[in-house]
Design a protein that fits this description.
Length: 189
């Protein structure tokens, strides 16, 4: 897929995710969440080639201009939309799936100082509300939702809604009956 196709895809995702988006040119020029993702793609490519200083410098410069910090080592899927963005932090070993929507103030952070995988894995089509913290080497299943200001420290099955501190899970509204998680079998906190 060409870079221009990816940009068009990202603009369509932003317009789908934000009812205030008026047009493609506006989204292209003023949506800091998209700018942060686009710069992340460059810094991530450099990171994968073994460079360390330059990708980190790029990510810090982008953080200065957008208020969004995405570590160059993070793996980001297609059509990620960061709405309003300010204060979003995505850690080095985080993995974010396709069609994810993240609101301002979200942290996908690590716990402790151990090396290796220490940040969350976010499934496809997950929505993470403003101010939510998703911490540690945990996994949020596809089609899950995290409420605003929730603190998630345990993995969650697909089609789970997580709210509270620490977050408690329950089946997400609109889940297909066949995919509704049985939370008795999948402990979520």
């Amino acid at each position: 897929m060409s870079i221009f196709s990816r940009i068009r895809e990202d603009i369509r995702a932003a317009k789908a995710g934000d009812p205030a988006a008026r047009g493609g040119v506006s989204v292209l020029l003023v949506y800091s969440g998209l700018h942060a993702v686009w710069w992340h793609r460059l810094s991530h490519a450099l990171w994968l080639r073994g460079m360390r200083f330059l990708p980190r410098a790029v990510s810090q410069l982008v953080r200065f201009f957008t208020g969004i910090e995405i570590h160059p080592g993070a793996t980001i899927g297609r059509r990620l939309f960061i709405d309003h963005g300010m204060g979003v932090v995505i850690g080095e070993t985080a993995v974010v799936g396709d069609d994810v929507l993240i609101y301002h103030g979200v942290t996908l952070g690590g716990t402790g100082h151990s090396r290796g995988k220490r940040h969350p894995t976010i499934g496809d089509r997950v929505v993470i509300g403003a101010g939510a913290k998703v911490l540690g080497d945990i996994e949020l299943g596809h089609d899950s939702a995290v409420g605003s200001n929730a603190v998630v420290v345990r993995s969650a099955a697909p089609w789970t809604t997580l709210t509270g501190i620490p977050a408690q899970g329950r089946p997400r509204r609109g889940a297909p009956v066949a995919e509704t998680p049985d939370l008795a079998d999948f402990y979520v906190i």
